[in-house]
Amino acid sequence: MTGTEEPPSSVLDSIGETRIVALRRMVPEKSARVLVKLEYENPTGSMKDRMALAMVEAAEADGRLRPGGSVIEYTGGSTGVSLALVCAAKGIPLQIVTSDAFSKEKRDHMTALGARLTLVASPEGGTTKALTLEMIETARRLADAPGSYWTDQLNNTDQVSSYDRMGEEIWSQTDGNISAFVQSVGTAGSLRGIATYLRSHDEAVHVVAVEPAESAVLSGGQSGSHEIEGVGVGFVVPLWSGGLADEIQAVTTQEAMATARRLAREEGIFAGTSTGGNVAVALRVAERLGSDQTVVTVAVDSGIKYLSTALYSEA
Questions:
Q1: Tell me: the pLDDT tens digits for 65-94?
Q2: Is 274 tagged catalytic?
Q3: Whether 48 is catalytic
Q4: Do residue 110 and residue 253 come from a single domain?
């Protein structure tokens, strides 16, 4: 290699710049067109690769994560897999707190990438406020070890910049032709970053937040158990604010799963349960807006992460 040649790329350089496609068969006549950003094109098959890289690199840059240190996080799975990718590529030890409420594929993927797992049992088998809080407290205790850096995703604003970039991609890919943006709420980082970017270019973009009907806390409902992994932690998350969305729509686990299955069979888009929820709500919004409008939503992660779960094993 000469001094003028570019160094070899890292796997981390392949994060982002995912494609956007139109639904062809699921959208009824006289509805708006529905575009889906295929975030499963990221290296681990998840949108969360963006936030994991942003959180780790920001902590490296300002000294919160020092050379020789380790990373700690609690996660429903996708953030953990993404952190495992980033930490493996950077040679950083990673300790993950997760649960049997989330898919075996995600846990196996984290382990394959070198993460050490601490499992917290879910008595109800689904995501609940109590489970989330127990995972957080377990991570807090592990983070007391010397040299540890706890990414603490629900409180970490470093992730927002990565979703600002995602918003920039969406704006460019649609030539700014966006009537509405639909996204489910986990940490609220993606909704916050993308919505803020889109509205900075067009204040008229209508933003719709999606949450589980069984735990519709953003809408003022009661916390409950649901099986839409990665969203609806059971309480109002710190990165959420009422001004982020023009409206909030709820979707049941059953509807989210049914829509994800339709998405696979009718469009060839193989994605997870939260994507099913996104598309279910996007279709509602598209029908309401009518033709000559454009609704954008996100295929959050790959269906490969859910083959052993009720989403596809019981399809």
A1: 999 999 999 998 899 999 999 999 999 999
A2: yes
A3: yes
A4: no
